[in-house]
Write a structure and sequence with these properties.
alpha/beta, binds iron/sulfur cluster, two-stranded antiparallel sheet, 10 helices, binds S-adenosylmethionine, globular
Length: 376
């Protein structure tokens, strides 16, 4: 469990020295406010059957982060310089990841999504997908920035990868570079084509919109999706950037995106008889030219149907992106724990899940780990 203590640095300023910061004089530990009351009765936790929380949400979707490293430095995710990554020895090996995945499979997890950091920069990922493929998951997917996808797409597909989400936040080369700080738009567009040629289509294109940065490209992206048969998913900027610069005013509400696209290309909701736990609200174009997704995590949280849990690259189970609490299983894995012991940690992590992420609550505290450290 996380230490609920936050570090607060105080820096001394010396007016005689032009007010320049002299040195850090005090490091004070301030207790984080206790999370709002959330009591679950451990004796009620099921010891068999699917992974279920105390609100009856069944968890059958696992996000596996396989690295916290990345070859990009997107403005909404990492600082331009100085991002600190974990030691390689702290990350789970592929054998450890495989063991966790097989335990999760036994607990009813049907779908796995590989993420990071950038999953395709970890050597051996193609072979790992093939091993996962043999575990019988109904769905194996990946979220990637696309830079290494063209070279691996066919092998990934043959290994059992079924779907891919490719992040791309601008269709203008100079702006793409400014947002992602590294890489080229053309490389990512080529990756989309390569993924389709390898049988990974229809692909989803993840677009994080930031007010005043790229929100003038909503119609361009809609047009792009309609012309290429790619499903563009507009994601609200979440308070999960490592520098901690997120501002609510930078969030582009999904409802506004809907209005803008609907006025130009009429949309209708994609209805389903079953409750869809996917985070995106799906809309299709009335003229049949594909669909879009809106992931309005900030303005319209979808926690009520959440079925996801996450494993960080260093082996911590998190029941929510925004959780301030996590359970490490790495040490258990490395100290000879049985599968049954690890299953119990999974069950406890899910059982203790809050009803919602609380971003809009007055006492909201952003998690200590940022998106790329958790696995988006
Ligand atoms: N590196 C891969 C990529 O960029 O697709 C996978 C990991 S990335 C953390 C997963 C997704 O999270 C990407 O679609 C990215 O755009 C999104 N993301 C990162 N930081 C975010 C933030 N602060 N708010 C909303 N989405 C974010
Ligand atoms: Fe890397 Fe993905 Fe974060 Fe961008 S969003 S810095 S590509 S992990």
């Amino acid at each position: 469990m996380n230490d609920p203590v936050a570090e607060v640095r105080e820096v001394a300023f010396d007016p005689v020295q032009d007010g320049r910061a002299q040195r850090e004089v005090r490091v004070e530990l301030r207790r984080r406010p206790e999370p709002k009351a959330h009591r679950v009765d451990p004796s009620q936790m099921p010891r068999s059957g699917p992974l279920v929380d105390s609100y009856n949400r069944i968890h059958d979707d696992l996000r596996l982060s396989i690295t916290d490293r990345c070859n990009f430095r997107c403005v909404y995710c990492m600082p331009g310089e100085g991002m600190v990554f974990q030691e390689r020895s702290e990350l789970l090996s592929f054998d450890e990841l495989y063991r966790v995945a097989s335990i999760a499979r036994g607990l009813g997890v049907n779908s796995v999504r590989l993420t990071g950091g950038e999953p395709l920069i970890r050597r051996g990922v193609v072979g790992f997908i093939a091993r996962l493929g043999a575990l019988g998951f109904e769905d194996i997917a990946m979220t990637t920035n696309g830079t290494k996808l063209a070279e691996h797409a066919r092998a990934l597909r043959e290994g059992g990868l079924r779907r891919v989400n490719i992040s791309c936040d601008s269709l203008r080369a100079d702006r793409f570079r400014a947002i992602r700080r590294r890489g080229e738009l053309d490389e990512v567009l080529d990756a989309m084509s390569a993924a389709e040629a390898a049988g990974l289509g229809p692909i989803k294109v993840n677009v994080v919109l930031i007010a005043g940065v790229n929100d003038d490209e909503v119609i361009d992206f809609a047009t792009f999706g309609r012309e290429t048969n790619r499903i563009v998913r507009f994601i609200e900027f979440m308070p999960l950037d490592a520098p901690g610069h997120w501002q609510r005013s930078e969030v582009v509400p999904g409802a506004r995106i809907f209005e803008q696209i609907n006025a130009r290309f009429p949309l209708e909701a994609v209805r389903s008889d079953v409750i869809d736990p996917a985070p995106a609200q799906r809309f299709r174009y009335v003229d049949g030219k594909g669909e879009i997704g809106l992931i309005s995590s900030v303005t319209e949280p979808f926690c009520g149907t959440c079925n996801r849990l996450r494993l960080t690259a260093d082996g911590a189970i998190r029941n929510c992106l925004f959780s301030n609490d996590e359970s490490s299983i790495r040490d258990l894995l490395r100290s000879g724990a049985t599968d049954a012991q690890i299953e119990t940690v999974f069950r406890q992590a899910v059982w203790g899940k809050f009803p919602g992420h609380g971003i809009n609550d007055p006492g909201f505290l952003r998690p200590q780990r940022s998106m790329s450290m958790i696995g988006g």
